[in-house]
């Protein structure tokens, strides 16, 4: 299986915050076109899961979101992306997957379906805008 190209710099994660996004119970997918100076080699992915996102009720009623839970959620999301991205991700886009608590319990097949839908939705707005511009040109012509 091909290795994912990953985002490493904070500036890339910050740039994607203002891009397109789709929210599911298990994750938030953020997407934006790659900068002109980076384009080459296919899509890049960033993954983040905070301790607050996977917090659960621990002993003595304290909320805990330890490294084991964060890493498990991240591994599940990475595997889902490895399976879905070759078909649904665009080569000239960067993506960030922000994990949520449901990433730990959600059925893996549902996680894959959510990811396929999320890719379609973040790219659907672009297709819709192109159609709108084309119809506007047709009306003006």
Automatic annotation (TrEMBL):
State the EC number(s).
3.1.26.5
* Record's keyword terms, sorted: Endonuclease, Hydrolase, Nuclease, RNA-binding, tRNA processing
Q: Does the keyword Hydrolase apply?
A: yes
The UniProt annotation puts the region (Disordered) at 54-75, 122-141
Q: Which residues form a coiled coil?
A: none
> InterPro entries per the record?
Ribosomal_Su5_D2-typ_SF, Ribsml_uS5_D2-typ_fold_subgr, RNase_P
- CC annotations in GO: ribonuclease P complex
**Catalysis: reaction(s):** Endonucleolytic cleavage of RNA, removing 5'-extranucleotides from tRNA precursor
A single GO molecular-function term is: 3'-tRNA processing endoribonuclease activity
Q: Which domain of life is it from?
A: Bacteria
One biological process GO term for this chain?
tRNA 5'-leader removal
The subunit structure is: Consists of a catalytic RNA component (M1 or rnpB) and a protein subunit.
Query: According to its UniProt entry, what is the function of this protein?
Result: RNaseP catalyzes the removal of the 5'-leader sequence from pre-tRNA to produce the mature 5'-terminus. It can also cleave other RNA substrates such as 4.5S RNA. The protein component plays an auxiliary but essential role in vivo by binding to the 5'-leader sequence and broadening the substrate specificity of the ribozyme.
PANTHER family from the entry? RIBONUCLEASE P PROTEIN COMPONENT
Task: Report the sequence similarity comment from the record.
Answer: Belongs to the RnpA family.
User: What name goes with this protein?
Assistant: Ribonuclease P protein component
């Amino acid at each position: 299986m091909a290795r994912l190209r990953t985002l490493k710099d904070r500036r890339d994660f910050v740039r994607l915050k203002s891009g397109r996004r789709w929210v599911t119970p298990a994750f938030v997918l953020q997407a934006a076109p790659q900068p002109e100076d980076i384009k080459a080699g296919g899509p890049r992915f960033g993954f983040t899961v905070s301790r607050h996102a996977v917090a659960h009720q621990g002993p003595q009623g304290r909320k805990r979101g330890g490294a084991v839970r964060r890493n498990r959620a991240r591994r599940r999301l990475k595997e889902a992306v490895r399976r879905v991205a070759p078909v649904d991700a665009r080569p000239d886009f960067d993506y960030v997957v922000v994990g949520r608590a449901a990433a730990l319990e959600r059925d893996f097949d549902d996680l894959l379906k959510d990811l396929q839908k999320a890719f379609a939705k973040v790219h659907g707005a672009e297709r819709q805008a192109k159609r709108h511009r084309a119809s506007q040109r047709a009306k003006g012509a």
